[in-house]
Structure formats: structure tokens, C-alpha cells
User: Fold this.
Amino acid sequence: MKARIQEITELITEMRKAIPDKQRKPIIEILYELIKYNIVYNDFPKYYFKHLLHRKYEKNYLDYYIGKKEFFKIRHSAKDKELVSFLENKVLFQHHLKESNLRLPNYFGYNLGNTFFSPYGTRSIHNSGCFSRMIEDLMKESGASSFFVKPISGIGGRDCFKIDTDILGSERLEEIYNKIISAKYIFQETIVQHPLISAIYPHSVNTLRIHTGIFLDGNIDLISITMKFGSDGKYVEAGGLGTILISVDKDTGRLGPQAWKNFEWGGDKYIRHPDTGFEFSGFIVPYFEAAKDMAKAAAAFLPYRLVGWDVAISETGPVLIEGNHNFGFWGAQIGAGGYRKNKVFRTFYEELNSLQE
Assistant:
């Protein structure tokens, strides 16, 4: 009873956030849909607002898995405890996938506090001066002009840094150093993305999120695909930082007509990128077939049953960034128009249910 009261309280809080939304349905209609979903599926509609289903144009709310019981059944049934660490730990992911033929970002090492481990040796970075010299040496040894640094176990794109020659010797480097030595970070190359994608938004590496499912017979299939773009001048694209998401036709690689932000960031919809004015509709992602093949190959090499793979598109082809076992399910469903009517996912979900019987 206490848990149900907390759920209702959280849902009311979400509803209060949605009330000022000029695109929302009438309150009575929202309440009707919440109650109907609960009756039809015997499940609490915990993620109704996260899926932007309170908007006037969303009429197919029953096509979405938004209930608490179903949502956690999907997460837990697909979970493989022995493989989770390969996806959550970016260093372990890097070392495992390097044995495949898949292209990964060039890897320069990682730090554990003030000790840095790399293919070029182990060094102490006990102050910002040592850190600056280490970066300069890495640039000379590797030929890289900049590095992208992210938490080994980070999520949502938070606390990531781009380090280049302009930062060396600046106060900003001191700030980055203090942040890095207080945690654990992986150092990788800064990917130069395809110029056609850079034209949409040039400040971040904009990635495909390709969702794969592995069936009991070992078959790997694509469930849905979205693409993530940075905004507001940020150099990281991630749902936790107000990323713009858009659906991608998984057969043609064509972007959908509208993009959106997560509900927490206002849930705004866009037909053009707000920073560049680039119109999304009709754009076809370069190297799309190769990117899909890469996601399937990654799923075969790291066989976690349900993963959202982040794939960047460089000037010469796709680059596998990471895999996410706990990916934003609501973003995936919004892009797909609900997973209940997605044939691949529906079959996948039925298999999960069969394992529980």
C-alpha cells in the first residue's frame, strides 16, 4: 500500500509538470487514459508522461509498454549478470571488443585516481602540471590532436570532457584534472564525424542508437533505431543533457519528420535542428547498412539479449562507441511509435514471458 501511494504521488508530480504544456490533452482525457491503461493491462502507467503520451497528437497510448510491472519484467528477464559489467565498464568493453573486427575509437588508456595506465606505460599524475605533460606526450606518441575523456562507468553523458591543445596550460585544464583524479576515466580519440551529419549539428559526435534483440534460437534482429543530436552548443549528446532524439527508418536510414527532447527537458518537438536550422525530414544517414551490420556483429560478440548500441558515423564508416543494457526505453518507444505493435519486439517479449512460465 505504501509503495502504491508513492507511485501515485510520483505520477501526480509528473502530471503537474505536464499541465503547463500547451500541447497536452484535456486533463479529463489524460485521467481517462491513465485509468484505462491500468484496467486493460492491469499495470500502473508509471511512464505515461515520459513517453509524451499526454500530448494531443498521441492517440495510440495503448501501443506502449509504460507499465511498471511490464517495464521491470523486460529489464530483469533480459538481464545477464555475468555480461552486465562488459557493458557498464567502458575499459572492459574496450578490451573485450578489441578482439573483434569492429572499429572502435582509438584507445589511449584510463586513470584510477592519480595513476594513469596506457599502452605507452603507467604514470603518476599527482598534479595538473604532470597531467598536462602526460597529455602532451600522449599527443606526440599517438598523433592525436585531442582526446575525449569519459567516466569508466558513466551514464547519460555527464562529466565528459574534450581535451585539446587549446586547453593545455589553461585554468580549464586544472578543473578537468581535479575532476578526473577524483574518479576513474577512459581516454579515447575524438571522432571526426561525417561532414553530412556535422552539417546538422557540428559541436558533438551525433550517434545512432541501434536496439538489438537476441532470440532463444540465437537469431539477432534489429528492433528500432533512433539518432541523437547535441544542442545548445554542447559537445556531448546524451539524453541526460537535453539531447534531441529522432526516429530512423530501419530499412532506409531516413530520419523521421520530427525530433524531440526528453520530457525532463521540456519534451519540445522540432522539424529543424534549433541550433543550425537543418531540416530533419528526408535526410539519409551515411553508411547506414554498415552501421546496422556493426550493431548485429557487436551483439554476436557480446551476446546480451537486449542492447542499445551507440554507433557514430565517421568520414570513412561507422565506429562503435558503446553498448547500453539500461538504455532509455521511453526514447526508443517514442521513436518506434510504441513497442507493442513492433513485430520484432513483440516476439522478443513473448519469448521473455515464456521463460517465466
Observations:
- The longest strand covers residues 220-229.
- The mean pLDDT is 91.
